[in-house]
Design goal:
This protein is of the alpha/beta class. It contains 14 helices and 25 strands. A hairpin with a 3-residue loop joins strand 13 and strand 14. Helix 6 crosses helix 7. The longest helix is centred in the first third of the chain and has 17 residues.
């Protein structure tokens, strides 16, 4: 099996004169870079890292805003067999203190405004400051670097990337993705979504998660696609780019999280532009409600392809590119992904149609967490990766996520799925979205409560929600308390931060 760097180099040489990346600063293209220039500059950057003492399998933290520098640095690290550790530049000092101590990087590539904080956290760490606010072509850091690299032997089990999990409970864990994991995942996605050199991807996702870095950037660059790389997600800018039809500027693929789609549809304000040139709209990283599936289809003229993946596993499920896309379903397993649905109490396979925990096997799944052998051991069972996701399969072989195992509420000895209650609440006219959770209760162990976001014009719908819950749910499943808030707290990938919500009750 070839490495990520070898796959990228093959593509760089095959499409040398073609534009690889068009980088947008705000609403304009600041820099265009060809595949050949991306190859040359990443080799120069790799030479610079070697001069800094970076060796094969060393961890290197990327603490940079979304930029061409980030992309070039990541590819450079892959070329020398080092390990990219991308971190959110928006993290606070307390968060970075834990992550830097855990990752133990040999080098931190950081923007000047964050360098002082990094040195306060660890005065011994080696920092390389690169200003991402300067246009890439104006940087002089690579001017004297060599365009030649000694060949480095990189094998499938070598680590290439550490992605820290969200850490919604406890400290984040570093998922160690090997070359085999990364190559297998990219190859599967390219195959099922038919990504090719004729595609142009509108890339508005962060680069410090697998969604933006692996599912989007890796697959586009390996397949020779043109990437419109936006420095951030701005719904008005994204819509302007997606509406463009001129040759060389017209996009064909857009990947996003549900919250992004919601903001895009709000920004449309009833407009109905033509998006016929777009062939693929994908949604992941958070559940896509059925009514949002329908809104997206109506707004953009094509059904979105909902899929499911994790930092630890790569992409696991996807609705078919050609074929039925079932609203509310994460689709069918990717090639090479084997799935069990397991009763989490008995650890036996659940009966057909019953809900259980998804256990997976594939070549895209990590074999370990960084420096966490106990957590690694708890996550695997006889070679099966225990996802913590609860779900079921229908008679057509489509899979559905119903909840996270850790989100299950135990009230009066009964297991309750928050998603089931949220589905009922979300039926009520005027409800935009809701989140149901359990909070400590002396009598019942946990008490069911709900946070609801409603439309400004809906008025007082508290009684409607309670009545609807009583109509469709057992009494012990009905929320004992309902609060209304302007928006649900989410992380950068759109996942609801339930621990933050609990503080409101």
């Amino acid at each position: 099996m070839r490495s990520v760097a070898e796959l990228l180099t093959d593509c760089f040489q095959k499409h040398s004169k073609k534009t690889a990346l068009s980088f947008f600063r705000g609403n304009r293209i600041e820099t265009r870079i060809s595949f050949q220039d991306l190859d040359v500059n990443s080799t120069k950057m790799a030479s610079l890292f070697i001069k800094q003492g970076v060796k094969k399998s060393d961890n290197v933290v990327l603490l940079l805003d979304k930029s061409l520098v980030f992309v070039v640095a990541h590819i450079a690290l892959q070329k020398i067999g080092a390990v990219s550790v991308p971190l959110n530049p928006g993290f606070k000092k307390s968060e970075l203190t834990y992550l830097l101590n855990d990752a133990a990087p040999s080098l931190v590539i950081v923007s000047p405004e964050l360098a002082g904080m990094i040195r306060q956290i660890d005065p011994t760490v080696t920092c390389m400051e690169i200003d991402t606010k300067i246009a890439f072509q104006a940087l002089d850091i690579l001017n004297s670097c060599s365009r030649e690299l000694e060949k480095i032997c990189i094998v499938p089990d070598d680590p290439g990337l550490i992605i820290y999990t969200s850490g919604t409970t406890g400290n984040p864990k570093g998922a160690v993705l090997t070359q085999k994991n990364l190559v297998n995942d990219a190859s599967d996605i390219i195959r099922i979504w038919e990504i090719s050199e004729s595609d142009t991807l509108c890339h508005s996702l962060p680069l410090f998660h697998v969604h933006g870095l692996c599912f989007a950037l890796h697959t586009a660059l390996i397949s020779g696609s043109h990437v419109m790389l936006l420095d951030r997600f701005d719904p008005d800018v994204v819509l302007d780019i997606l509406k463009e039809t001129r040759p060389g500027l017209a996009c064909t693929i857009f990947m996003a999280v549900p919250a992004m789609y919601s903001k895009l549809m709000d920004a449309l304000q009833g407009q109905t532009p033509c998006f016929d040139h777009m062939r693929l709209w994908t949604s992941g990283s958070a559940p896509l409600p059925v009514k949002e599936f329908q809104r997206i289809t109506q707004a953009f003229g094509k059904e979105p392809v909902e899929r499911e993946g994790m930092s630890e596993t790569g992409m696991n499920f996807s609705n078919p590119l050609k074929g039925e896309k079932k609203p509310g379903s994460i689709g069918i397993p990717l090639p090479g992904v084997t799935v069990r649905i397991v009763d989490h109490k008995t650890l036996l396979d659940a009966e057909p149609g019953q809900t259980g925990e998804f256990w997976l096997k594939s070549d895209s799944i990590i074999s370990r967490y960084w420096k966490k052998p106990e957590e690694t051991a708890m996550t695997f069972e006889n070679g099966w990766f225990k996802t913590g996701d609860l779900g079921k399969k229908d008679s057509d072989g489509y899979y559905y996520l119903t909840d996270r195992l850790k989100n299950i509420i135990i009230t009066g000895g009964e297991n309750v799925s928050p998603n089931e209650i949220e589905g009922v609440i979300n039926r009520v006219d005027g409800v935009i979205e809701s989140s149901v959770l359990g909070i400590f209760d002396e009598k019942w162990g946990e008490k069911i409560v709900a946070a609801v976001v409603k439309t400004p014009a809906s008025g007082d719908i508290n009684r409607q929600i309670k009545d609807t819950c009583k109509e469709h749910l057992h009494d012990w499943k009905c929320p004992k308390q309902i609060i209304f808030i302007k928006k649900l707290p989410r992380n950068t990938m759109g996942k609801i931060l339930k621990e933050d919500l609990k503080k409101l009750f």
